[in-house]
Specification:
Layout: E1 2-7, H1 15-25, E2 29-33, H2 44-48, E3 52-57, E4 65-70, E5 75-79, E6 92-97, E7 100-106, H3 116-138, E8 142-147, H4 171-182, E9 186-187, H5 188-192, E10 201-202, H6 208-211, E11 214-215, E12 218-222, H7 224-227, E13 230-235, E14 251-255
Parallel strand pairs: 1-2, 7-8
Antiparallel strand pairs: 1-14, 2-4, 3-4, 5-6, 6-7, 8-12, 9-12, 10-11, 13-14
Helix pairs in contact: 3-4
Length: about 260
């Protein structure tokens, strides 16, 4: 079973690339972020043509998450996070697929910091941690995956100095991320790539892709029940270099049945 995450950065603009990736790599489950479309504009029929069922949580113009599954309908278990009744941003979607609980996460960026956007980011991360504890207690094989907008360590960025003032690298952001790891969640990519140097995002500006100036912000956090079954992890880096690509690239992990 292969579970993947892909911040698609606009599902309508990148649909050919997304279909291409799905057909070429055939993940069992694909979690998408930044679909940037309202619910009625989601291209479910295009995925059905290649055998994928989908659920989605859209929002006009920005945010938005989705879960695709190969040959089976994801069974939705939660939409959005509790803890803030005023939060209407489409950033969290959770479902059961073939005995695994999967959440597609688009965590707030937090820039500029300090300020209200950074405060929202940290509050959102705390709400995620509270909900993650309920999933942990249920002892269901669980993958909390997506764009966390956190660079966990200096080894996860091409230049720590270049990103030092960014919300993605602030001590508070990192501490919130590591708080989840201290609760027992496994960072799949880091586990099998402990030396770092693995990027999942390259900005469109300043020739970042051509110069390999990237960083790792797309993560797969696994419960013990799923981490014990992990057999491989990968980053589909080549898709970042294709025409009209997302600025992120797909990240995946494989699990024994």
């Amino acid at each position: 079973m292969r579970i993947a995450t892909f911040n698609i950065n606009g599902i309508k603009a990148r649909l050919p690339r997304l279909i291409e990736w799905l057909e070429e790599t055939r993940p069992s489950v694909a979690c998408l972020q930044e679909i940037k479309t309202q619910d009625e504009g989601f291209p479910a029929d295009d995925f059905a043509k290649i055998g994928y069922e989908a659920i989605w949580h859209g929002q006009k113009g920005f945010n938005g998450v989705a879960i695709l599954a190969d040959g089976v309908k994801p069974v939705e278990t939660q939409r959005g996070l509790s803890g803030d009744d005023s939060d209407e941003q489409a950033r969290y979607l959770e479902a059961d697929v073939n005995g695994v609980r999967v959440a597609s996460i688009y965590l707030p960026n937090g820039n500029p910091q300090p300020g209200p956007k950074f405060d929202y980011k940290l509050a959102w991360m705390e709400r995620l941690r509270v909900h993650a504890k309920t999933l942990w207690d249920a002892e269901i094989p669980t993958a909390l995956i997506g764009d966390y907008n956190v660079i966990p360590e200096d080894k996860d960025v091409w230049s720590p100095a270049a990103m030092a003032n960014d919300a993605l690298m602030q001590p508070a952001s990192r501490n919130a991320y590591f708080a989840m790891l201290s609760d027992g969640w496994t960072d799949a990519v880091n586990t099998l790539n402990p030396r770092g140097g693995v990027w999942t995002f390259w900005d469109y500006q300043a020739g970042a892709w051509q110069r390999d100036h990237g960083f790792r912000i797309d993560h797969l956090l696994l419960s013990p029940e799923l981490a014990d079954r992990m057999t491989a992890v990968g980053v589909d880096k080549e898709y970042r270099g294709r025409e009209k690509s997302s600025d992120h690239t797909p990240v995946w992990a494989e699990f024994a049945d």
